[in-house]
Amino acid sequence: MTEAERLLWSKIRMKQLKGLLFSRQKPIGEYIADFYCHQANLVIEIDGGQHFLKDNMEYDKVRDEYMISMGIDVLRFTNSEVLTNIDGVIETILQHLS
Q1: 87 CB contacts (<8 Å, ≥6 apart)?
Q2: Total count of domains within the chain
Q3: Rg of the chain on CA atoms, in Å
């Protein structure tokens, strides 16, 4: 896991958010989600700089569309967002779960 993934995992594991169970590195179809909550049908992705290259952006778009077609919502945060504003990231996730 990256530093940002470790930080977020420390805040969402063991049912810390609304008693919901999150898994990490969860296979969904042919993709692997960074974090997944089955009860909320939610995937959380933490994106490093490589995600902002044109080819990777297109891949992520197709991947997100697949998740959405499966009834799964996708929240994306950058490494920087997680590392510099973890409270804001958690608040965004909690708002989505409400």
Answers
A1: none
A2: 1
A3: 13
Stated pTM of the model: 0.92
Q: Which domain holds residue 51?
A: 3-97
DSSP state of 23: E
How far, in Å, CA of 33 to CA of 35, rounded? 5
Q: Tell me which residue of 80, 82, 45 sits closest to 64, measured CA to CA.
A: 45
pLDDT tens for 37-75 read 999 999 999 998 665 667 778 999 999 999 999 999 999
E strands, the chain, in order: 23-28, 31-37, 42-47, 73-78
Q: State the first-to-last Cα distance of the chain, in angstroms, to the nearest integer.
A: 28
Q: Give the DSSP letter of residue 60.
A: H
Tell me how far CA of residue 87 lies from CA of 2, 11, 22, 61, in angstroms: 18, 10, 18, 26
Q: Identify the CATH number of the domain in which residue 63 sits.
A: 3.40.960.10
Amino acid (1-letter code) at residue 89? V
